[in-house]
Inverse folding.
C-alpha cells in the first residue's frame, strides 16, 4: 500500500468548528434583527 | 476537511492565524462568485438570443474551476489554510438554512428522511463489512469505511478513528476513497436524476441519503436546484445526527475485543459525537416557525445562507486532488465504489417508493 498523504492540522482557533459556526450564525441573526446589516441580495 | 491528524501548531497568536485564513477565504469567494457570473452570463446570453440553454447552476461552475486549479497548477500554500474553512461556511450555511424550513416541514421531511436513513445505515454498514471481508481489508479499515459510507464521510471517519483506535494510514485511505467517490457523484447523480425525471424533493432526498460527505451532498443537490439543495442538506443532516449511535456501536464492538477503550458513560459519548450545528439549525427553524423574523429578514438570512454555501462549494473543487487519491491504493477504493453503487441504487429505489409521502 502507498504511504498515506501528508495530513494538515485544521486551523483550530480556541473553540470547535461547530461552536464557531453556531456563534457566527447567531451573531449574524442578531445583526439582521437589530437592522445593522444592509439588505442582502443574491 | 478537518484532518487534524498531526499535532497542532504551537500557539501562533489568534490574530496571525486569523490573517492566514484571509487569502484562502478570498479565493473561495472569487471562485464562487465567478461561478455565479458564468451562470448569469449563460442565462443572459440565452435570453438575448432566444435560446433554450440548459440551466446549469453556479455550483457546477465553481466546482469545475476549483477542480481545474487543484489538478493543474495546484493550490499555492498561501491559500491553503483559508480553503480549509470551507467546512466552517458549510455549517454556518446549514444553521442559517433553518430559516427556510418551518418546523412542520422539518418533522415531515425529517420523518421520511429518518426512516430512509435507518434503512440506508443498515444496508451500507452490512454491505461494507461483507465487502471488507471478501477483499481481506484490515478489520479496522473496514470499520472506518463502513462508518464513512453509512453516515457522513470525512467527519464520521475522524470521529471514529479515535474511538476505535484505528491507524492514521487506515483513516487516510478511508478518507481518500470517500472523497474520490464524492467527486464522481457530483457529476453522476444529476445525470441519473435528469434521466429519470426526478422531482426536486425526490432528487434532494436521494443525494442526501447517498452522497457521503456533507459538502458534496449539499453541492450535488444545489447543482440540481436551490430547492433540491435544501432537501439534500436536511436529509444529510438527519444522517449526520446518527453519527454518535453508529460510532458507539463500533466502539463497543472493538472494546469487547479488547482493541479499544471501554466507554463508561454512553450518554456523554453520544452527546460529544453529536454534531452541535444541527441544534443551531433546529433553533433557527423554530424561531422562523414562531414568526421571529419579518419577511425581509427571512429573505436576508436565506441569502446569507446561500453565500455561505457558495464559499463551501468553491472549496469542494479546490481540495479535490485526483493525483493524491491515485496514490491511496486500489482496494479501499474498489470496496468503497462497489458499496457506493449498491447504496446509490438501493436509496434510489427507496426514494422512488417514498415519493407519495414527499411534498410535491
Amino acid at each position: 500500500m502507498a504511504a498515506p498523504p501528508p495530513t494538515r492540522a485544521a486551523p483550530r482557533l480556541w473553540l470547535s468548528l461547530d461552536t464557531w459556526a453556531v456563534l457566527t450564525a447567531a451573531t449574524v441573526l442578531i445583526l439582521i434583527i437589530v437592522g445593522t446589516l444592509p439588505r442582502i441580495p443574491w | 476537511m478537518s484532518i487534524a491528524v498531526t499535532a497542532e501548531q504551537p500557539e501562533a497568536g489568534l490574530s496571525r492565524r486569523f490573517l492566514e485564513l484571509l487569502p484562502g477565504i478570498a479565493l473561495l469567494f472569487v471562485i464562487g462568485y465567478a461561478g455565479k457570473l458564468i451562470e448569469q452570463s449563460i442565462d443572459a446570453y440565452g435570453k438575448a438570443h432566444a435560446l433554450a440553454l440548459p440551466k446549469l447552476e453556479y455550483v457546477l461552475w465553481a466546482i469545475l474551476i476549483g477542480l481545474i486549479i487543484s489538478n493543474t497548477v495546484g493550490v499555492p500554500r498561501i491559500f491553503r489554510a483559508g480553503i480549509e474553512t470551507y467546512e466552517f461556511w458549510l455549517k454556518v450555511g446549514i444553521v442559517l438554512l433553518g430559516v427556510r424550513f418551518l418546523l412542520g416541514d422539518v418533522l415531515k421531511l425529517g420523518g421520511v428522511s429518518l426512516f430512509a436513513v435507518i434503512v440506508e445505515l443498515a444496508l451500507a454498514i452490512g454491505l461494507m463489512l461483507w465487502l471488507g471481508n471478501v477483499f481481506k481489508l484490515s478489520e479496522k479499515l473496514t470499520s472506518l469505511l463502513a462508518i464513512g459510507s453509512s453516515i457522513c464521510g470525512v467527519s464520521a471517519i475522524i470521529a471514529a478513528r479515535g474511538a476505535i483506535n484505528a491507524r492514521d494510514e487506515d483513516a487516510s485511505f478511508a478518507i481518500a476513497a470517500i472523497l474520490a467517490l464524492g467527486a464522481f457523484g457530483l457529476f453522476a447523480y444529476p445525470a441519473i436524476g435528469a434521466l429519470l425525471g426526478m422531482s426536486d424533493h425526490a432528487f434532494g432526498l436521494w443525494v442526501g441519503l447517498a452522497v457521503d460527505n456533507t459538502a458534496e451532498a449539499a453541492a450535488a443537490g444545489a447543482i440540481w436546484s436551490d430547492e433540491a439543495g435544501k432537501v439534500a442538506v436536511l436529509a444529510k443532516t438527519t444522517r449526520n445526527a446518527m453519527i454518535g449511535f453508529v460510532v458507539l456501536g463500533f466502539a463497543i464492538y472493538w472494546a469487547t475485543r479488547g482493541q479499544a477503550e471501554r466507554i463508561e458513560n454512553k450518554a456523554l459519548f453520544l452527546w460529544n459525537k453529536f454534531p452541535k450545528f444541527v441544534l443551531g439549525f433546529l433553533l433557527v427553524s423554530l424561531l422562523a416557525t414562531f414568526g421571529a423574523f419579518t419577511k425581509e429578514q427571512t429573505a436576508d438570512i436565506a441569502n446569507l445562507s446561500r453565500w455561505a454555501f457558495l464559499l463551501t462549494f468553491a472549496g469542494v473543487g479546490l481540495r479535490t486532488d485526483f493525483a493524491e487519491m491515485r496514490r491511496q491504493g486500489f482496494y479501499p477504493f474498489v470496496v468503497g465504489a462497489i458499496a457506493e453503487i449498491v447504496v446509490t441504487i438501493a436509496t434510489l429505489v427507496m426514494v422512488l417508493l417514498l415519493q407519495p409521502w414527499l411534498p410535491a
Summary: Confidence is low (pLDDT under 50) at residues 1-8 of chain B.
